[in-house]
Amino acid sequence: MREFHSQIITDEAQVGAARRAVQRYASVLGFGEGQLAELAIIVQEIGTNAVRYATHGGCLHWTTPHGVEAGLELFYADKGPGIYDLDRAIRDGVSTGGSLGGGLGAVRRLMDEFDAYSSVKGTTRRLGLSRRTTHGTALMGRKWVAAATPGGAAARRGHAQRLGAWSRPHPGEDENGDAYFVREHDGELLLAVVDGLGHGRGAHEASRAALETLGQWRGEPLEVLLMEVHDALRATRGAVMAAVVLNAEAETLHYIGVGNVEVRVLGAHEPVRPIPANGTLGARLTQVRVWPYRWTPGSTIVLASDGLSAKWDPSAYPNLLPRSPQLLAGVLLRDFSRTSDDATVLVYR
Question: Is residue 317 within 8 Å of residue 286, measured between CB atoms?
């Protein structure tokens, strides 16, 4: 599981702090001077727009792309008024207020991968989407270390492009009681979200114990894996978990779950309604079963801890689903994460 770093941006001083922090982080990853200078421009452009247009500012997050250490992933989100003409705003050479002259077009040009989504304040009724009350802008970009050797990096990058994941601790806590897990083995992909009971250190210890057991998965059946996690968590306060195994070639999806970790499949030809078992891993466990479904190529699966409200509705976000899974995960966390708990969203397409 990746480590996420964040900087709230509401004024110019915080723009500078974000710029310096991202450059320090990227230099450790192996980025050269030229790329570090480009990252400075990217963060300055994003930050300047946040200060000038986002009303209450925004937040910039940075981490490494999943499974690729020789790269940097940036995600920015705000709940500002949104960008009315996003295509024009990210066109190269269009400045959005006299920052460095390149605007968001410069951000897109200097990143190796870039995606953006914006919903504009005041358009809800016109679109007939009464359930959507949120608006704002989200940007996602990845940049790869220029000196990195190709090898299997291209395959890992392709896998990162299909995955979206965000996880944050309870506000005010340093340790995250949630965790997510992704592993591929022999043509099958295991995805899991674990939610340690409560939050803080005890929840963190429970979720990390679950990750250690999940890390030993080498294709064992899900019911066997679940019982191994259950046994491993007996010395902790316990956790709930949802896990799925996808086989894209066979077009199969198998699910097992205990407790309130939500799983939704969007864009499937057939309904997928996973039913979790009652209980707590490490403490009390009722009879569990594996639920088989058909996996539709091109569909999207979302796993989320209960730190994310279940009220989110993909139809309230026109054209968001085809965007990057990482962008989708970030928007969901921005708009529906609860301030009373840890929160995790895992997306795969």
Answer: no
